[in-house]
Amino acid sequence: MSRSRQFPLRALWLIVAVVAIALSSPASAEADDTKRFLKGLKSFGISDDADKAKKPCICNGGPSSLDGRVGVLVAAEAVSALITYRADCLVPTYQLDRSFNAYVSCMGSGGTFTPLSK
Q: What is the pTM of this model?
């Protein structure tokens, strides 16, 4: 094989290597790590989405409208210099016709919470 035919093949391998390095950048690795972490929490019934969370909790303290109320335990993403997850008990509220209204944060309302087990 002549030298002129080898050069384009080497250039192609260089392009493939650069693309592979770009795809394995820390940003994509971080996304995979956070997904893996959330997947581990999911095995305990904890989610970053209140509609998917299954772990019950009781809100303690805070306003009387939340004290003693049952909610679901969620892991809310908190971003500052690093990404962390903050546990909170989100209490669902309903209209008088029993239709869903909104989730209210126990921690955000000044309360604490107790996770429930089976």
A: 0.70
Q: Coil, strand or helix: which one is 115?
A: strand
Query: Position 28: which residue type?
Result: S
Number of other CB atoms surrounding residue 57 within 10 Å:
24
> Which DSSP state fits 78?
E
Distance CA 103, CA 89 (A): 9
- Distance (Å, whole) CA 114 – CA 68: 10
CA distance 9 to 91: 61
* Alpha-carbon span 4 to 25, nearest angstrom: 33
For 64-84, what is the mean pLDDT?
A: 92
Distances (CA, A) of 52 to 3, 20, 32, 90: 60, 34, 20, 12
Nearest to 47, CA basis, from 100, 102, 103, 88: 88
Q: Report residue 72 CA to chain centroid gap.
A: 14
Give the domain ranges of the chain. Answer: 1-43, 45-118
